[in-house]
Automatic annotation (TrEMBL):
Keywords: Kinase, Phosphoprotein, Phosphotransferase system, Sugar transport, Transferase, Transport. InterPro entries: PTS_EIIB-like_sf, PTS_EIIB_2/3, PTS_EIIB_3, PTS_sugar-specific_EIIB. It comes from Lactobacillus kullabergensis. PROSITE patterns: PTS_EIIB_TYPE_3 (PS51100). The modification Phosphocysteine is found at C9. This is PTS sugar transporter subunit IIB. The keyword NADP does not apply. It comes from the Bacteria.
Length: 108
C-alpha cells in the first residue's frame, strides 16, 4: 500500500524542499509513500490523501482543514521544518498513520 502525504505551505515552495528530504528518508527506510507539496490554497483540489502536513506558517488553518477533510491534519514542528529534517517529519507522519490504523508495522 502506498501512503499519500501532502505538505502545504503558503506557496508550496519551502515544503517542496522538505518533500525531497522526506523522499530520501522513505527510500532509505523502504517506506512506500507518495509525497507532494502544494500551496495551502490548492489543497481542495486533492482527494484520496492519507495525511496533510502543514508548514508552521499556515498552522492556523488546521482547524478549518480538519472540518473539511476526514484525514489527520498535523502542523510540522517548526524546528524540523527549519532544519528540513525530512526523516523526522516522515517518521512523525507514519506514527500518526499507524495510530489512525492506516499503516502497519511492515511499512517501515
Amino acid at each position: 500500500m502506498t501512503y499519500k502525504i501532502m505538505l502545504a505551505c503558503a506557496g508550496g515552495f519551502s515544503t517542496s524542499m522538505l518533500v525531497t528530504q522526506m523522499k530520501k528518508a522513505a527510500k532509505k527506510e523502504n517506506i512506500d509513500v507518495e509525497i507532494n507539496a502544494v500551496a495551502e490554497s490548492a489543497l481542495n483540489n486533492y482527494d484520496d490523501l492519507d495525511i496533510i502536513l502543514l508548514g508552521p506558517q499556515v498552522g492556523h488553518i488546521k482547524p478549518e482543514l480538519e472540518k473539511e477533510f476526514s484525514i489527520p491534519v498535523r502542523v510540522i514542528d517548526q524546528m524540523d521544518y527549519g532544519m528540513m529534517n525530512g526523516e523526522k517529519v516522515l517518521n512523525d507522519a507514519m506514527k500518526v498513520l499507524k495510530g489512525a490504523g492506516k499503516a502497519n508495522d511492515s511499512s517501515k
